[in-house]
Amino acid sequence: xxxWKFGGxxxxxxxxxxxxxxxxxxxxxxxxxxxxALSGTTNALISIGESLKAYNDxxxxxxxxxxxxxxxxxxxxxxxxxxxxNAGKAIVDKEFNFIxxxxxxxxxxxxxxxxxxxQGELLSTQMFEAYLxxxxxxxxxxxxxxxxxxxxxxxPVLSFTEENLTAMLSQLTDKEVFITQxxxxxxxxxxxxxxxxxxxxxTASLIGxxxxxxxxxxxxxxxxxxxxxxxxxxxxxxxxxxxxxxAAELAYFGAKILHPSTITPAKLRGVPVRLKNTMEPNAYGTxxxxxxNDSEIKAIAAKDGITAIYIHSTRMLNAYGFxxxxxxxxxKFKTPVDxxxxxxxxxxxxxxxxxxxxxxxxxLSQIADLEEHDRNQTIICIVGDFKADKAGVALxxxxxxxxxxxxxxxxxxxxxxxxxxxxxxxxxASLNALNEGLFTFE
Length: 442
Description:
alpha/beta, 17 strands, seven-stranded antiparallel β-sheet, eight-stranded mixed β-sheet
């Protein structure tokens, strides 16, 4: 069995859903199909929630009515028969009745926020399943809330998914296609929760790992993962193959096509992940697996919103435990460090979450001297096969960046990653310079 995931733009129009129906049924293979909310829906639901939190019920009602009108128009074009349309309308009415019921709840808490955001996936999957039934497809709906669980640390419980999903599938051996929701889950209290934004990719990977799928396919609207950001760099191309480690580095450092957490469950169970294009389904896309070709430099990604912290201490000289104290401070405030470089008396680190920056700075100042932080920085990650016995890779990178100031360099901790820190104003120039300096174009 395979697991296929389709994002919001892939299901954002009725004709897109029609195309997906053809895609998932043409090979005759059993599969679990994970769907996101229709494009724009999650943002609309968040906006409704913000109005309700502000006690602006009239504004919330106006937004709900506008969203309902969109869905009414959507189902008119999605279904071909009166019975199909009636089934779709019943689904839309049911979910919007629930959304409207939240208007009367005061105060509008985090629990209700998560409940309202979940309606996007509940709507898209039920509507699509009703469409498959209208088309006579042998299909069934698998409610994600029955098998997706996060623990107290907001981490998915893979064993729970494996046990409950396997049991559900064992009762539906006569079905060919299974539809389920991405993104949503339950927390330890049994409440509706989610895997954060972009979490539909994560859902697909968790499901694929749980059932030991033949392959996980992530369908988007571009040809796999490109060697550079096509929104900034003119000459880019899709990367045919990546290792799990390479793909994880690229996702974490800004490759938008893939959610950073997606790779972990697939890698754990050795399930290949393929990135495909709904607009060009016959294109090869990008295959992510244990082993790939040994291309030296494969791709570049960039991560914005970085703050650099410079820590100086003469006490670092032969000072046992200094770094431990530094990282205990970041651990205390649950703030991950992206990059780190050290000298004998200095440490420089970068973070992408500055929520607790003032408290971190105050704590660090008790054990060291701090320079003024560098905000508005960008980490540029160059990914490939950089094994220790390969010479000249770093030289190529530095040569390509010869006209652009580099604030930090991290190289050697990974066989797959060279990271550079630059001022965000130099990001576009950096990506273009690296593209021209590191890749060969015909």
